[in-house]
Design goal:
176 residues, Glutaredoxin, four-stranded mixed sheet, binds FE2/S2 (inorganic) cluster, 2 domains, 10% strand, alpha+beta, 40% helix
Amino acid sequence: MTETQEVKFSDAAMAEIQRYISHYPEGRQKSALLPVLHIAQAEFGGWVSPEVMDKVAEILQIQPIEVYEVATFYTMFNLKPVGKHVLEVCRTGPCCLRGADEMIEMLKQKLNIEEGETTADGMFTLKPVECLASCGTGPMLQVREVYYENLDSEQRVDEFLQMMRSKEHEIPTWAK
Ligand code: FES
């Protein structure tokens, strides 16, 4: 979405947003902020621009800053355009003890990007995150709601990337 485009949710997305808002008492619609941000991210290409966050604030009848402070706190929200697959790589201590640094370095070299960047073909974004609660199977990463674990060798990293490039994984990361 470009900055000049109007932020307009689809009818289906608006219906879903209203369903979440209806879970809360009158005047407490801010409580639906997290799911509404998830809907917004899915609706607008996998990231939430300031314009999208402003629209969310308007829908929930809250101040834009209240949306910004939540969207910038949680790593699951992307604040700039991302690739088709967002590789959320765990870089917290236990995974580091099991080789997370090496896994991240391999991914950087093989994808020719740094942390936070997207590959030239728009396929992958490399995004370091904190503990994903799968410490015993590190080094690991998450793509959408799926965990990929024990990526502790070049062969496993290669197999993972090959699988993500295959037809079975054509659904964009940000798609519902
Ligand atoms: S430290 Fe990586 S999942 Fe917990």
